[in-house]
Amino acid sequence: MKKRAILMVSDDFLPNVGGIAAHVLEISRALANLGNRVVVLTRIYDPEEKYPELEIHDNIEIIRVRTSNYKKLRALEFIVKGKATLKKLIGLEQFDVIHSHKLITDSMITKVPFSGLKIFTNHSSTFLNWYANKEIRKIHFLLQHYQGNISPSNELHTKIQTIFPKTPSINISNGVDANKFKPNELLRAETRIALGYSDADQVVMIARRLEAKNGVRYFVEAIPEMVATNPQIQCLIVGDGSERTYIEKFIKEHKLQHHVTMRTNIQNHEMPSYFNAADLVVLPSLMEATSIAGLEAMACAKPLLGTRVGGIPEIIEAGRTGELIDAKSSKAIAVGVELMLANRQRLFDYGIAARESVLNHFSWEQIARKTVRFYEACQSQIGASNEASKAR
């Protein structure tokens, strides 16, 4: 396997919490572990300057572009400064691949002359909204310069193919570090004690950014019915976002404080503790690629209850690793939780099967190898196209 110099461009990266930031870190680390040179170009708002502009992390070189106090201008700042930095980098070193991850900022930054391969991984809910609203010209403008498109769900893969039928495209799921995320009974006991849970409590967890697309509101609105049916239920919400105020207000108005624990600004390295503390993990998303949080829960041997949207049915095998329900339905969540918690042995069996599925299909090494093979396929297609052009 040829070793490559890969320049990752991502508007979203450490220390941010969320799926794309985690994905870029893990795929970069896995590609580096295969012997590739990986550089990540990202941005950061860091007024206290806790994070250096240049850092080596797990054999990955991280270059951070600092942005200002003006939140609304940060993306634009990254486009301008990031493009200048990108041009400088590709002028100093011969990179084989530029691989970007954010629909708008990264795509604008990578519109520069480059002799290598440009790849885009499409994680974007904005892409899905634009596609649904037939705003195809926006998508075409942003993505037309890429020579290969990766999608972490069949839904994204199918839709991007309809816009760019001649551009190589592949569905490669997200992955998970099964050595970091794994069952740990001691960690489970310690975390449950720290959170104030008893052995009898049944902990139902969501690990989501508190944004509309993640359906957290439907989960929260299901809690009154859940605890009325089963008073032993404790709900653990890990995440932060724009819907936090609504959620906290709902919990207070319905006097659910004794049944709900919220944790915000939790770093990814802390997540194994919370997943291990849970008995069931819910993915109430309205749109989703391959949920990294879902895979992390599965790696910790936790069964999933998830909605039939995007890539969620691709990781949940209904009746074996979890169950699937309709989206946008608090009733479906409440009933699904009740049915799954009713049979502890089945819940345990689902968890064992969930970890087995992760080990067999979703390791980051497997994802990285698939990614490299896609690079090779795209490069071969470009070479064949160039030869055909010469022949004409």
From TrEMBL:
The lineage of its organism: Bacteria, Bacillati, Bacillota, Bacilli, Bacillales. Signal peptide: none annotated. GO terms for molecular function: glycosyltransferase activity. The keyword Transferase applies. This is Glycosyltransferase family 4 protein. Keywords: Transferase. It comes from the Bacteria. InterPro entries: Glyco_trans_1, Glyco_trans_4-like_N. Residues 17-179 form the Glycosyltransferase subfamily 4-like N-terminal domain. Pfam families: Glyco_transf_4, Glycos_transf_1. Residues 195-355 form the Glycosyl transferase family domain.
